[in-house]
Every structure is written in structure tokens, then in C-alpha cells.
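Shipment paperwork, digital attachment
Item: protein structure file
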Amino acid sequence: MRRIVLGLALVGVLAACQPQAPAAGGHARPKIALVMKSLANDFFATMAQGANAHHAAHAADYDLVVSGIKNETDLAEQVNLVEQAVAQGARAIVIAPADSKALVPALKRAQAQGVVIVNIDNRLDAGVVREAGLSASFVGPDNRDGARRVGLALAAKLKPGDEVAIIEGVTTAYNGQQRRAGFEDAMQSAGLKVVAVQSGEWEMDKANTVAANLLTAHPQLKALLCANDNMAIGAAAAVAAAGKTRAVLVAGFDNIAAIKPLLADGRVVATADQHAGQLAVFGIEHALAALRESQPPADQATAVDLVVP
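Attachment content:
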């Protein structure tokens, strides 16, 4: 999967070096840059596939550049991708920022050069955006509500007072903060006891280590709530290694392809689908609308659905 997505990104970069061709009516097609987070995450692989499929169906309307970073914490590389998009003549940047604060200065510089900014997936920090004077529409789901529903589905299989732990994403990412809050909402509502919250930084291997340590430190633990499916897969492997499959429940978020076998056999009991393939498309369409209109369109809420076996 990684090989396929890296290929998509390379195609996007090569396409960016070509002059923008005229659209119907003689006007140059606008170039849209889709800048994602980790290309190693199936969620963003699906996002890239959705974006490329939309572009293939609307090739006369716009040009598309698809790129992403190698891991979830490579902020400097994502800033570099934003700057490359501007240098290559992008009229709009659709970005899933790896950090809700750190990307704002680069996006503000891009906007100062006339580039439309559309924020998808992980919302930029409102205070930092306001202070920088950045204008960026947000297109994405209510992560807190999605995580709350996942948490309630897991809680229905436990009893009040049971111990649970949360493996959160990158702590400076707004969507990670919202998913943690949603899990906490559900646990409080169900009367469950959150005994630990640790970051797995969205990564499978990191979450595997965190989960193994949590299982040792809290032998009465009944569940691990993971803020994305990559981490849920890592946590489920740690649970299996400890001989506690189904004795310690695992939940995730994103509904990536790799989580489906774990849902089917009960190693994971719930996740949330925020429709990665459609999310990029909504962002691209939002950017095209902003380029057509004198006023940028309003923020757009997108669907997030509970997925259980």
C-alpha cells in the first residue's frame, strides 16, 4: 500500500512541474495541491485514491498535486510541501495538517501570495489562526461526537467501575484532542474509570509499546480506546501477546481497510468511519468553489459514522 501511495505522490509532484493547461473557454485550469499527513497510514492512502478518482473524472476543470509526509510528526516536511505547492503555482492548498498550530505560519505566507487555503480532517487551532490573520475554511467531521459514539459502543460491553485507558494521537493535533475528549465523555457517561491516557502519536508500533506497558501497569484493565485504527491494530497485537484477547476490548477510529479483519473476529469492537475518500473530494470541491466566488464558502461538516461488527 505504501508503494502505491508514494507512487501517487510522485506522480503529483511530476505533474506540478508542468505548465497549467487551458480549460474549456481558454482559461488556465487551477492547480489544487492536496497536502496530507502520513502516507504510511491507510486513511491517507484512501484519501489520495478518492482525490485522484475525482480528478480523473474532472480533469478538464483542474490540475491536482497529491503529496504527504512519511510519518505523523514530520512537521518540517509538511511545511516544505506547502512551500513547494506555492512555488509550483498552486491556486489552492487543501491540507490535513499534522499539527494544528505549527502549520499556520506557512499557510498564512501562502495565503499572502493569493493561495486559497482549505483545512480538512484536523482543524487548525482557532486562536493561532485568528492571531495570524489566516482565513481558512474547515471541511471535516465532528471528531468528538464520533469518538463519543465509539466509546459508548465499547462501554455497552463493560460494567460501571471497569478500568479503561486511552491511547491518544499527537497531543498538539486538534482532532486527536477532540477524540480523546469524546472518549472521556463516553467513559464518564457510562461510569467507567479512565486510569491512564498516553500518546501513541498515531503510529502502530508506538501504540503497541504503549499498550503493552499499560497492560502491565494496570492488570485490571478492561479496554483500550485508540484515537485511530493504526494504533488500535498495534494495541490489539499487544493484547494478544499478553493473552488477553477479548478480555481487554479495543476500539479505534477511521475504519481503514486493515481494521476490518479485527472487527470481524472481535479483536476490535468499534471504530468510526469519516469517509476518507470523500473527505479529500469535499475539500477539493470547496477550494474550487472558493476560487469561483468572491467570498469563501462557509465551513462544511462531513459525516462520521459508527462502525461495529
